């Protein structure tokens, strides 16, 4: 990859990982539309590391409280034996990640072989973009995360599994179902971001194992640039998205998805 391609793809990963517009779709599109070469396993690992560090650092206070409380539910640490909300939230997030892990393990070959085309991306971009718009317009938006409960968390976790299909958007579909369950826009976004931590870690670990067992040549410079740029752009994206979502709602992203999907259909079928 050229330096320009590394920069563009790193920024795309960082900006789209947490926006409800599908990072996987935007990373596949340059090769499908512009004919760019596949970025390779090493680069995928680098940008996943960058985005993971960004979300963990941004929510470091929440993550720290959840970690301590979670160990407390296991009888370890200063809070052992307590039943705090942070401890329950940690369990909800861990359990809600299981469907995506199982779906990815069982369906990865089908997804990689049959569901990474521009036509599939166009269809999922349109369908789930429209669903996000419907949820944003119709949701009550008055439930806090604590009232979500394990059942609500698992519903969002099941929705996250569907996002393994390119174009769906992990953040988009989890925010969509969060809104449908009554969460405010900000709470739907926050829960989606927290839920992304084990999901990104799981995806990054899988890619790392594939990289270790492969014979691919590692471009350390590309990995370094990719990781740093993905981290910076992802951190900024999380910060400003949480500010803007209360003011603008999801509609700007819905409109973008509908235009993108229509453009892709024109490109594929035209």
From TrEMBL:
The chain crosses the membrane at residues 6-29, 41-59, 89-106, 118-135, 147-167, 188-208, 220-243, 250-269. Signal peptide: none annotated. It is found in: Cell membrane. Its main location: membrane. GO terms for molecular function: undecaprenyl-diphosphatase activity. Bacitracin is thought to be involved in the inhibition of peptidoglycan synthesis by sequestering undecaprenyl diphosphate, thereby reducing the pool of lipid carrier available. This is Undecaprenyl-diphosphatase. It comes from Thalassotalea piscium.
